[in-house]
Amino acid sequence: MTVKLAIVAALVHTLAAGAFFGIFDPRAAQIAAEARVWTMRFNTMGAVGTDDCAVVAFVRDDLNINDPVFTYALGCALHEPYTEKPPRNGISNIFASVVFVARVAPDKWLAWLANYYDKLDPRARATVLGTMRYTPYAESYLVLQAALQDQNEVPMEVTNPIPYWPIRVGDIAYSWLCHKLAEHGDWPPAYDRWNVISPTHPIANRDEMFARLNAFWCTNSPVILSNLPHLLQATPPSTVLAPATLDALLERIRRIPLVTNAPLVF
Amino acid sequence: MKLFLTLCTTLFCAGLPAQPDAHLTVTQTIFVVLADGENSSADVYAYLAQAAIGRCADTYIVTGATGLCAVHLVTDQAGFQRALATDNANIVYDGHANFGLGPSFMQAHGGCRQLSDFMNIGEPLVGIDWAYLCYDQGNPDFEIARADYADDPSTPEEYADAWMYYEELPDGAVALRYATAGGDKRMRLHFRRRGFRPTRSMHVTEEPRLIRLVVRGGADDLPVQRWRRLFIKSCYSGQYFFNVFRHGTFFYSNNEVISPYPVTAFIKGIVDGLTDRALCLALNDAENAYRPIEFPMPRYAYYTSFAAQEVNNH
Q1: Which residue(s) pair with B69 in the sheet?
Q2: Do A160 and B293 count as a contact with CB atoms less than 8 A apart?
Q3: Boundary of a domain, candidates B188, B216, B244
Q4: CA nearest to B209 within chain A
Q5: Same structural domain, B229 and B143
Q6: Domain check: are B93 and B134 in the same one?
């Protein structure tokens, strides 16, 4: 009897998953594996005043994502065992949500960004830019390149050393763009020493680094982008992301007001 | 070059010879230096428990991409010195930078009490935050001898008046440096004593800005360097140690770092035969996989000195 019950339960589970993926769909295992990575994050969200159901509802409804694949993956993440509790305040909901959407449903993620990006504060924009490293699509390069112009200061904890200069959203976009270019072998190894902008980089030196990157990008971006997968050309064609959506996102990023002459801080 | 490792006691793991004095040929030697302030040991031990095929005391054997790798765990100054002096060694250090004074291994002894208790591998003059060293980094009895203050000997009328200047590093960042004589673009510091204890004091510029207490650090404990790759996982290790480690490929942070994962990522990277660039990318990924409080951003960089490049090319 027990054996029969177990078989029935296994069949029900398989059919439930199959409704989303098809039993042999390779995406099932891949998405489930990625979902496990985010267990800690979503448990953290649960620890700061929400419960699992609220998290699911938040991501599904507030981000307007009803994709069954995403919902299933999120469910996998929520039901993994708790493994680690990060120190201090934990990570933000926006980071957990945006990263997960970027991983699981990148087309919906860009559409969401197009609606919300310019409403985010600098820290949240920096967080969103950090998620770009999780997607291989060419559009992520365009987003980072557009964000280079965002010179608004990101509040961050700097205890040492002195002096330091404020980190700006564009500095973070610069660092991630270099990171992605290096990761895919497009960035000259001789430039690796300039991959990271930190609080100890004077503004004038950062300007030189931006100029070097822009010159490289202007020359090489057509080839680099042509070798990457494009969301706009994804097969099957996305029903969510239209060319106008990406254009709207890039336009919103460029519309962020500039702040210049960041002061030296002691 | 292949290194020979003699395991002088019994190896107790399947697949390895079980007799004393067994000889193994290893293709990579990795030293993991865990000093005061480290937070990576749990992650490192978990990795070694899963990956090691043999162990002898604090040395673990791991199968790598090009052969066996020896991973030595080191928790004292002599061990770190031995690592730096080992030909083609891959070294990862986790612990406090102590404002550039160098590592400390004194936690079990109540912390450092004097400058020489640190492993001095820094610049000749180091600007420290004395109170932070005492109360935030576990050295409550740390005192500085009068002779250890930086002083400009040409101005005997003023005590402990060092000079400060900025040094631009090859990656575009700047670091604070100190000298006992004036020079181009140098700023004179003045000594201001605060409170009753002699070390509760700071050097300041003409403007009322808090600077540092400038002391004679130096690199007396630095051995002849023969390592190949060195990763210092400390906050702002690039600013503090860039001029000291100009031997092979130096992996450093130019920001605050907190994750316990990059040390294991470094070990895995060496075991898997990653290039220097790929190794640095892996370190940044490991840092940001944990970074729980702030926004994600790359925090590690690497630099291969020209001397090391020439050696590698030949």
Answers
A1: B28, B62
A2: no
A3: B216
A4: A266
A5: no
A6: no
Q: How far apart are CA B156 and CA A8, in angstroms?
A: 91
pLDDT at B65 over 70: yes
Looking at the structure, tell me whether residues B85 and B230 fall in a common domain: yes
Portion 199-228 of A in contact with B at CB < 8 A: 199-202, 205-206, 208-209
The whole domain housing B33 covers 3-99+222-313
What is the nearest CA distance from B186 to chain A, expressed in angstroms? 15
Rg of the Cα trace of chain B? Answer: 21
Do residue B167 and residue B242 come from a single domain?
Answer: no
User: What does DSSP say about strands B249-253 and B229-233: parallel, antiparallel, or unpaired?
Assistant: parallel
Q: Are B308 and B237 contained in the same domain?
A: yes
| Residues in a beta bridge with B168 | B174
Give the chain A residue nearest B173 (alpha carbons): A201
Where does chain B show beta strands of DSSP type E? 3-7, 22-34, 52-56, 59-63, 68-74, 90-94, 125-128, 163-168, 174-179, 187-188, 190-193, 201-204, 210-216, 229-233, 249-253, 300-304
Instruction: Nearest by CB to B298, from A95, A175, A189: name it.
Output: A175
From B201, B216, B231, give the residue that closes a domain.
Answer: B216
CA distance linking residue B295 with residue B314, whole number of Å: 42
Mean predicted confidence (pLDDT) in B68-78 = 97
Contact A161 B239 (CB under 8 A): yes
Q: Where are the domains of chain A?
A: 25-104, 107-259
pLDDT value of residue A188: 95
A36 and chain B in contact, CB less than 8 A: no
Angle between helices A68-78 and A26-37 (to 10 degrees): 40
Please count the structural domains in chain B.
2
> pLDDT, tens digit, for every residue of A30-51?
555 554 444 444 444 444 333 3
Q: Which of B175, B169, B176, B184 is nearest to B246 (CA)?
A: B169
Q: What is the ipTM of this complex?
A: 0.88
For residue B113, being part of any structural domain is answered with no
Nearest Cα to Cα of residue B33 among B125, B124, B102, B122: B102
